[in-house]
Design brief:
Elements lengths: L4 E7 L7 H11 L4 E7 L5 H7 L5 E6 L13 E2 L1 H6 L4 E5 L2 E5 L2 H13 L6 E5 L3 H13 L3 E6 L2 H12 L5 E5 L12 E4 L23 E4 L8 H8 L3 E3 L2 H7 L1 H8 L7 H9 L1
Parallel strand pairs: 1-2, 1-3, 4-6, 7-8, 7-10, 8-9, 10-11, 11-12
Antiparallel strand pairs: 3-5, 5-6
Helix pairs in contact: 4-5, 4-8, 5-6
The chain binds NADP nicotinamide-adenine-dinucleotide phosphate.
The site of NADP nicotinamide-adenine-dinucleotide phosphate (NAP) has 26 residues, from helix 4, helix 5 and helix 8.
Length: 276
């Protein structure tokens, strides 16, 4: 029998995760004898549960809330991408050693490119200053946006991202949450990297009247797929990109590292997840 490679996702709770469905779809598509399982791990059991995974034959695992930061000191190594963001979302196990990285930034930019990179990269506005926002700001800076505005309710968090991402070498400014509408003037891109707008949570209240018609709006949230922000953007003619693309793309480096094939993120993959 062919060697069955085993991977999974560690979170609490983890039942809502689409990752098992996504990896199963690719395993079947590429006819790879592999498994990808959901591992519900309570925060107090994280250290001993993950230390058992190499012995249980796992070649890697994804990490989701609430473990993305807490897992870092428990790993044998953490690379630059994860350190820059301060969170790990993917671990590869080689000869019993666990190496953590972060593919959210990659997933974000790959999805933005697939959905349509704005023609001009003069100004990007990022809502939020959490883990995802940190990855987004870093990638937008690397991508050549000349001015990035972080809009958040705790200014210190935005300032920490600004100073941590590029030192003082980039034009990154931080604006208070109350100014989120006016800040949209002249923007080429608006990214919602807050948790506002999720199915079960509070709504994102933002007036888009200052946003230019040619701007692109991207929401990292994928449940619901069409957030009120994206619906509002589409209604006024802005290009809109949902969070499902980022979710699929961030899984590409993991699948390749663990199962040896670089999977394609295409319409069929998307349809599969939408119906799953
Ligand atoms: P996080 O670290 O908890 O950050 C959440 C951010 O939202 C924080 O900046 C928080 O502000 C802000 N926020 C929450 N409530 C707010 C409010 N009432 N007013 C203003 N700001 C508010 O979470 P994360 O990991 O960055 O994730 C953010 C979102 O991105 C989540 O919805 C997540 O599902 C999504 N995401 C999607 C993907 C994907 O693959 N599509 C990947 C990663 C994340 P404070 O700091 O002040 O609390």
């Amino acid at each position: 029998m062919a060697d069955v490679r085993k991977a999974g996702i560690v979170g609490w709770p983890v039942t809502h995760s689409l990752s098992p469905k996504l990896h199963r779809y690719w395993l079947d598509k590429y006819r790879i004898p592999g498994e990808y399982v959901a591992l519900a791990v309570e925060p107090e059991n994280l250290a001993h549960k993950i230390s058992a995974l190499p012995k249980q034959g796992f070649c890697g695992f994804n990490v989701t809330v609430p473990h993305k930061e807490k897992i870092m000191p428990l790993l044998d190594a953490v690379d630059e991408a994860a350190r820059a963001i301060g969170a790990v979302n993917m671990v590869t196990i080689t000869q019993g050693k666990m190496q953590g990285t972060n593919s959210d930034g990659y997933g974000f930019i790959a999805s933005l490119k697939q959905g349509g990179m704005p023609k001009f990269k003069n100004k990007a506005v990022v809502l939020g200053a959490g883990g995802a926002a940190k990855a987004v700001v870093k990638m937008l800076g690397n991508e050549g946006f000349s001015h990035i505005v972080i809009v958040c309710r705790v200014l210190e968090k935005g300032i920490r991202i600004r100073d941590g991402a590029f030192g003082k070498n980039k034009n990154i400014t931080v604006e208070p949450w109350e100014r989120r509408a006016e800040t949209l003037a002249d923007a080429d891109l608006l990214v919602n990297a807050t948790s506002l707008g999720m199915q079960s949570g509070a709504a994102l209240k933002i007036d888009l009247q200052w946003l230019p018609g040619a701007a692109t709006v991207m929401d990292l949230i994928y449940a619901p797929l069409e957030t009120p922000l994206l619906a509002q953007a589409k209604a006024r003619g802005n290009a809109a990109i949902d969070g499902l693309g980022m979710l699929m793309h961030q899984a590409v480096p993991a699948f390749e590292a663990w199962f040896g094939v670089r999977p394609e993120v295409d319409q069929a993959t998307r349809e599969h997840l939408l119906h799953a």
